[in-house]
Amino acid sequence: MVKVGVLGLQGAIREHVKALETKEAEIIVVKRVEQLEDLDGLVLPGGESTTMRRLIDQYGFLEPLKAFAAEKPIFGTCAGLILLSKHIEGVDGSHIGVMDVKAKRNAFGRQRESFEAPLSIKGLEEDYIGVFIRAPYIEEVGDDVEVLATFNDKIVAARHGRFLACAFHPELTDDDRMHQMFIDMVLEFKKEGLATE
Amino acid sequence: MNQQTGTDRVKRGMAEMQKGGVIMDVVNAEQAKIAEEAGAVAVMALERVPSDIRAAGGVARMADPTIVEDVVNAVSIPVMAKCRIGHIVEARVLESMGVDYIDESEVLTPVDEEFHLDKRKYTVPFVCGARNLGEALRRVGEGAAMLRTKGEPGTGNVVEAVRHQRLIQSQIRKISSMSEDELMTEAKNLQAPFELLLQIKELGRLPVVNFAAGGIATPADAALMMELGSDGVFVGSGIFKSDNPEKFAKAIVEATTHYQDYELIANISKNLGIAMPGIEISSLKPSDRMQERGW
């Protein structure tokens, strides 16, 4: 059993909780910095990245989140991918900035261009329906980053060590394989951590 | 590639991303930037905020496209805009401009007193107002991907939004506790699509996101609407008709996120300045009640 948090400042929080609840995990909605303690992993949900960053700053979440990322696995979806990225096109600096990728915001266009499409994701046997909403994509990745999925040659899912990110919204479908992938990462990471202690 | 736009999942999903947030009415690029800076999840681009529409009287129409364009260019958060109830062309024009969400709104003067838009036909998602569950589900049946209470816009008086949210929530609870063989009669009573009642019974909530709107003027008002089960709030005149829009905007965002943290709401409500002037609902002439527009 692992303890996984969902950052609960704004966005599709309930959907992530619902997808994770069926797993071998205890789920905490994180609204305050103290709640990060004791967690084995954290999900950064989809929402408005600009808004989430404002709220992160307002509640002094940025440094605690960076400290958390230095030790524990994080899964970012859509806005969460932006928060994790080291580089963001057209923006100076980053947010949490731990994943060695360059992200482009609203890269597929505005809401009318938002779409869903089947994706072939590394590690998953059958296609996964990706729901892209004013979604970003990853323009460049560092050497240690594994690309998990592309759509029209754009990178839309990737893993960098203990960080998992996707441009689409796995929480908006009933398919929970991406969540399972993250829980597996958290379990694996916790086991390794215990082994080295 | 096999790529589909404008699906229910994509339209409703967009509203899911707005949850827990505040959507603010703005009339120009400068206000839009203030809203974004304060942490709004989206802005509603308008020619006039509801209280000014109320004061001006006459026919209220879709905003000048220049205003919408300026706002779209000024911010990176989503931009919504209002069209008149039943105005197919205003809706198509806004869609063609790349607006992210259209509000088929009773704040503007309806052009069709019988038919709302067939919102399923558009790629852009729609939000619509409702006073009760029947009205809410008729709009969802027409394709609305997001709902909001109507409240009484432009009054700075949250009483009607409270009434509408309480009623909708209690009607949802009633359906949740009914047996399936009672639902067709309930659908008849509510004048709502039967399939949507089945969905509510299964989910225990509406199949789309439901925000509060109409009369929210203070951080405590916003928190109250969250407490009553709203997924987020729209603030129309409440911000830019207050003494200090920057402070009000930030405080309302914070109160919405932490709606059960009363000490925090006390702190952010200190020295905010004067909220927008309010109107007692009973002093409105029946013809001035915007919530009666649409069915």
TrEMBL record, chain B:
EC code: 4.3.3.6
Subunit structure: Homohexamer and homododecamer. In the presence of PdxT, forms a dodecamer of heterodimers.
UniProt KW Lyase keyword: yes
GO biological process: amino acid metabolic process; pyridoxal phosphate biosynthetic process; pyridoxine biosynthetic process
MF annotations from Gene Ontology: pyridoxal 5'-phosphate synthase (glutamine hydrolysing) activity
Sites where the protein binds D-ribose 5-phosphate: 25, 154, 215, 236-237
Keyword Lyase: yes
Residue ranges of every copy of the PdxS/SNZ N-terminal domain listed in the record: 8-213
Keywords: Lyase, Pyridoxal phosphate, Schiff base
Organism listed in the record: Guptibacillus hwajinpoensis
Residue sites binding D-glyceraldehyde 3-phosphate per the record: 166
Stated family: Belongs to the PdxS/SNZ family.
Protein name as annotated: Pyridoxal 5'-phosphate synthase subunit PdxS
